[in-house]
Every structure is written in C-alpha cells, then in structure tokens.
Amino acid sequence: MTGFTHLDSAGHARMVDVTHKQPTERRASAEAYVAVSPQVVDALRSGDVPKGDVLAVARVAGIAAAKRVPDLLPLAHVIGIHGCTVDLEIHDDGVAIATTVATADRTGVEMEALTAATVAALAVVDMVKGMDRGAEIVHVRVTRKSGGRSGTWERA
Question: What percentage of the chain reaches a pLDDT higher than 70?
Fold first, then answer.
C-alpha cells in the first residue's frame, strides 16, 4: 500500500512521523456560509436574536475549535496554534464566515482552519435554529494555504 502516507505496509492507519521536519511558518484560511431566512438576517442586524450575540458566540466557538482538532481527527498532529481569526459578515441571505489559522510548526493548519469555520457555522445554526429550522450550512472549504513543502495554494 505505497503512496498512502497515513497507512503502513499492512494497510493499518498510522500517524505520519514528522519529527525530522523543521518547524516553518504556515497559514491556512477557510470559509463557510450559513444560509438563513430574511427574518433571521433582520434579527442579526438589529441584535434581536433571543439567544444573544450570535456572531460573538460563533467567533469564540471557532477559535476554541481550531485548538481541538487533534481531539476530533485521530491522525491529526498536536501542533501549536499561534494565531486564529474568525470573521463573520451578515449578508442578505445568511452569514459568511472566514477563518485564518497560523502556526510555526512541522505540519499545516488546513484542518484547523476548516474546523474553525465549521464549528463557527454550527454555532450560528445553534443560535438561530429556534427562529429558522431551515438554517443550513451551505459550504465549508479551504480558500488558501501557505508554508511547508508544497508552498502556497489559493482557491481560484
């Protein structure tokens, strides 16, 4: 089973050994979008969501989630999260979420950026579900990564 970095020669899952790699600066960004009803958009803009400050809760949830990736993904490495931003913007049909995670470590932070975006989106849904049972996470995706052996990649 050659070519699969997370499988050994017998096909068993393993954590890749990155001990030999030198720490380098790495960043990854991701985005998510939560589609909500016009009534929820109005409540978000006026600050009248019954559960409270949706954007503040989602921001903190996303940052906390970025630091928990090794607890959620069994083959993820424990790395230092040296920076994390979670930005939320209210649009006419939902909430746009943009995250960036930074480290100076041996492996990338794409999973951390995706997890921050996903959990922030889940927090938005949780905060508004009483007002809009149809609230949905439309997409979550990596938008950019830099550092490491593969260099910089950006979504077109």
Answer: 99
Tell me: pLDDT of 136 over 80: yes
Q: What angle do CA 47, 52, 96 make, to 5 degrees?
A: 65
Overall domain count for the chain: 1
Whole-model pTM above 0.85? yes
Which entry of 8, 53, 87, 126 is annotated as an active-site residue? 126
Q: What is the CATH classification number for the domain harbouring 45?
A: 3.30.70.640
Three-state secondary structure of 132-153: CCCCEEEEEEEEEEECCCCCCE
126 is catalytic: yes
